[in-house]
């Protein structure tokens, strides 16, 4: 397997995608993410048809996401014990098996609880995917290309999360139902597994020597005890909390002050367009020589845009502000992930990203859950202003004394495939 070289080139998407292994893992992860969403949402439709119960639908969809909060830490540990590419392949193939079983259950009209259990098992098997990809990216691209690679990972995450429901919608519009959608997800998982199986990343150097159950805490201890990891991780949590709050707040604002349900579509479109537009500049911003003050500035823009969106009386202006917020949250995410990758130990990076997945999915969920109660108490407009102010202040505290990490090649050591490491920083791509 060819190793990435440390060419002194500007970080661009094209140069990052020149690395064959990264390209295959990224494409496989994108296909697997679409398949996972199609699987979960298709089952939700089937459950609603069988039970006419919104509670069962909520349980079905919730069990499709809850495993990321519960199991991502252990999934990260597994991705540090074994080859990251092998973990991705195993995850895709195992989920293809679950999807095939679920398709059989739909065909034979199994009881709803059994169908939901199979889908929940597929969600648990999905949890190693992101930690393995985040850690595997370090092994596939040279350090100077990390910002561009992280931007691509984040962009693929966003695009596939938006594309999943759309793909299911197209399947339904052709007159097919959950069974065909589940079979499609099965095929997509197989394709993803075939792509990742073509990559052969080595097992982390320390993996064979580790066997203690205390390893489960290693990722959390690194986050707690290592300031260059803890600070960008904290910024990531703040970023995702505000994002989760904003997604629900847009619905509440539209209903209370901006014209109702039609406006929600414009606001969601603005958020997505802003995030996609940020892809044009995010790699250069993430490669900035002084990332800490720039990261703080981006978070301030995010908080300000979200806060002003809460009090804007004019729908076009609100859509513009939401688009700015979408761009800022994506940039903050990529910058934090780059810092985090450069700070976490190579042989423990996946478990650090497992903690990252837990904290950030939890932050999105918490932000979403708080939006309704706070809006009821304060009003949707004043509530989002208050939350934005608090997140801005928290970002100031989190970035204080933050320093840029050394490039991972600057401390290269034997046995790390030219991926020796650094001394600071991290963040998620969420």
Fold blueprint:
Blueprint: H1 13-17, H2 20-51, H3 54-81, H4 84-108, H5 112-126, H6 129-140, H7 146-173, H8 178-196, H9 218-225, H10 227-257, H11 261-278, H12 282-286, H13 291-311, H14 315-343, H15 349-378, H16 380-399
Write the CATH architecture name of the largest domain: Up-down Bundle
Shape: globular
Major sheet, described briefly?
none
CATH superfamily of the largest domain: MFS general substrate transporter like domains
Could you give the order of the helices and strands? HHHHHHHHHHHHHHHH
Question: Taking Cα atoms only, what radius of gyration do you get, to the nearest Å?
Answer: 21 Å
- For the record, the CATH class of the largest domain is Mainly Alpha
Give the count of helical stretches: 16
**Mean model confidence by pLDDT:** 79
CATH topology-level fold name of the largest domain:
Growth Hormone, Chain: A
Helix content: over 70%
Tell me the number of structural domains.
2
Which structural category fits the helices and strands? mainly alpha
Low-confidence stretches: 1-8, 208-213, 404-430
Beta-strand content bin = under 5%
End-to-end separation: 29 Å
What is the strand tally? 0
